[in-house]
Each structure stands twice: as C-alpha cells, then as structure tokens.
C-alpha cells in the first residue's frame, strides 16, 4: 500500500470514509438525518480540509468547528460518537494506505476529535 501523497489520495480517503461513516449504526444519523449533508457539496470541502492538513496545501477556507455547534444543539455529540468517528477513520486509512502521512492523518484526527469533543461538551454545559 502507498502513503497519502496526492490530492487524489486525499479524495479517495475522504470518499471512502464518508461511504462508511454515513452507514454507521452509531453515528451515521448525524450525517444523514441531523446535518443532512449533501455529499456533492460537502466532499469537496472535506477534500480541501484534509489536503490542507495532510499535504500542507492551504486550500481550505472555513470554520469547521462553527459548523458543528448547531448539530450539537440538536443531538449532543458525545465521547462515544467521536470514538466511533475515529475508529471508522483509522480503519479506512489502514485498509487503504500506509506510511508517515497515513499515520499523521490518524494523529491529526485524534487531536481534532479531542478538541471538538471538549468544545461541544462545554457548549452544552453553558
């Protein structure tokens, strides 16, 4: 298996991840029922987000944290949800890639999940 080194790799990873996560029995509903994401609109943003993080190309513009607060107001995003998101992400990576960027993608996702979980919990407690 190859490492994540190109935009095409990032797009493949993100698409595979979303194919899996929207079907997940624990968290899929966040994407399909609560956020009601339109994949044709959402995926290019996620491609840019992860390309910026993993390849260092500053192509992402936006406020990813802000997009999640309204979802959290409808249904609390709990630790179990972030853990599952991470499990699906890590499995998707390990099924398709190996190398430094692949491992970095897992580490960065873990950090993002920790920060997001903290912010979502704090938002519910205030």
From TrEMBL:
Q: InterPro entries, per this entry? A: Globin-like_sf (IPR009050), Globin/Proto (IPR012292), Hemoglobin_trunc (IPR001486)
Q: Which controlled-vocabulary keywords does the entry list? A: Heme, Iron, Metal-binding, Transport
Q: Which SUPFAM superfamilies match?
A: Globin-like (SSF46458)
An example of a Pfam family matching this protein is Bac_globin
The protein's name: Hemoglobin
Q: Which organism is it from?
A: Epilithonimonas pallida
Taxonomically, what lineage is the organism? Bacteria, Pseudomonadati, Bacteroidota, Flavobacteriia, Flavobacteriales
């Amino acid at each position: 298996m190859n490492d994540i080194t190109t935009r095409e790799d990032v797009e493949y990873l993100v698409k595979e991840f979303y194919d899996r996560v929207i079907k997940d029995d624990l968290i899929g509903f966040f994407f399909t029922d609560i956020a009601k994401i339109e994949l044709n609109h959402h995926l290019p943003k996620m491609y840019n987000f992860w390309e910026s993080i993993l390849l260092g190309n500053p192509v992402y513009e936006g406020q990813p944290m802000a997009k999640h607060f309204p979802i959290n107001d409808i249904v609390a995003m709990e630790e179990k949800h972030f853990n599952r998101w991470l499990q699906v992400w890590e499995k998707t990576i390990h099924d398709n890639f190996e190398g430094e960027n692949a491992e970095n993608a897992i580490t960065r996702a873990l950090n993002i999940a920790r920060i997001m979980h903290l912010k979502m919990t704090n938002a519910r407690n205030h």
